[in-house]
C-alpha cells in the first residue's frame, strides 16, 4: 500500500475534513466562473475526466493539440488559484516559484485517466503538487519509459502528493475510482487538483 519512487512524496490526510470542505467551497466559486468541460484529445476522442483550471494558465486539449492557455475555451481568463492552495504549495514544496496553473480534474462514475507523462510545461525542474478530494482513486505510477514496471496506490480525500526529481517525468494515471466511497462531494465523484509552474 505504499509507493516507492524517488521524488514521490505523499502526505496522507494532509487536509482534515474541515479543510477539505473549505477547499470544496473555494472550488465552487472557481467552477462557477470556469465551468468544467469534457476535453477532446487531438484524435477527437472525448476524455472521461472533466476539466477546468485556475491561475494564469489552464491546460486544455482539443483537436489542435495539448497546450497551456491563458483563456478558457469560451474566451475568458481563468479564476485565481484559491489562497489555501498557494499556502499549501509554499508549505509542501518550498519552491521559489508560485504555481501558475491549478488544473482541476473531475472523475465521475467510470472515469479514468490513461498512463501519460506531464510534458507540456517549459521546465521539468519544478515540482507538481496534487490534492485529492472526494472518492478514492487508484493511482498508478511507472518509470520514465512506457511499458515499464508500475506500482499502484489508492489516493484518498485529503491526501496531497508532491512529485519532484525523477518522479516528475514518470508515467502515471488513474485506473478507476471507488464511486460513492466519500461523502465530501454531495453527488459523489473525485476531484484532483494539480498545481504546476508552467512557463
Ligand atoms: C506524477 N492527474 O492532471 S495526480 C494530471 O489524479 C494527472 O487526476 C492525476 O495526472 C489525477 O496530469 C494524477 C498525481 C500526479 C500528478 C502529476 C504528476 C502525479 C504525477 C506529474 C509527474 C509525475
Ligand atoms: Fe499527469
Automatic annotation (TrEMBL):
GO cellular component, one term: cytoplasm
Cofactor note: Binds 1 Fe(2+) ion per subunit.
InterPro entries: Alkb, AlkB-like, AlkB-like_sf, Oxoglu/Fe-dep_dioxygenase_dom
Binding site for substrate: 59, 66-68, 120, 146
Single Gene Ontology MF annotation: ferrous iron binding
Domain Fe2OG dioxygenase: 98-199
The entry's keywords: Dioxygenase, Iron, Metal-binding, Oxidoreductase
Keyword Hydrolase: no
Binding positions (Fe cation): 116, 118, 172
Biological process annotations from GO: oxidative RNA demethylation
Cofactor: Fe(2+)
Entry binding sites for 2-oxoglutarate: 105-107, 190-196
Name assigned to this protein: Alkylated DNA repair dioxygenase
Organism: Roseobacter cerasinus
Amino acid at each position: 500500500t505504499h509507493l516507492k519512487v524517488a521524488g514521490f512524496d505523499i502526505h496522507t490526510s494532509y487536509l482534515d475534513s474541515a479543510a477539505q470542505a473549505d477547499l470544496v467551497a473555494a472550488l465552487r466559486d472557481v467552477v462557477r466562473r470556469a465551468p468544467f468541460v469534457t476535453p477532446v484529445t487531438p484524435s477527437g476522442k472525448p476524455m472521461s475526466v472533466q476539466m477546468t483550471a485556475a491561475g494564469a494558465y489552464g491546460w486544455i486539449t482539443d483537436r489542435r493539440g495539448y497546450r497551456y492557455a491563458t483563456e478558457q475555451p469560451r474566451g475568458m481568463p481563468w479564476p485565481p488559484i484559491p489562497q489555501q492552495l498557494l499556502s499549501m504549495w509554499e508549505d509542501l514544496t518550498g519552491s521559489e516559484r508560485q504555481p501558475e496553473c491549478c488544473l482541476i480534474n473531475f472523475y465521475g462514475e467510470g472515469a479514468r485517466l490513461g498512463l501519460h507523462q506531464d510534458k507540456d510545461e517549459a521546465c521539468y525542474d519544478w515540482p507538481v503538487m496534487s490534492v485529492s478530494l472526494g472518492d478514492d482513486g487508484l493511482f498508478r505510477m511507472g518509470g520514465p519509459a512506457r511499458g515499464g514496471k508500475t506500482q499502484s496506490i489508492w489516493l484518498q480525500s485529503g491526501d496531497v502528493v508532491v512529485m519532484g526529481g525523477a518522479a516528475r517525468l514518470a508515467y502515471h494515471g488513474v485506473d478507476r475510482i471507488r464511486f460513492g466511497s466519500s461523502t465530501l462531494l454531495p453527488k459523489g465523484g473525485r476531484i484532483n487538483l494539480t498545481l504546476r509552474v508552467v512557463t
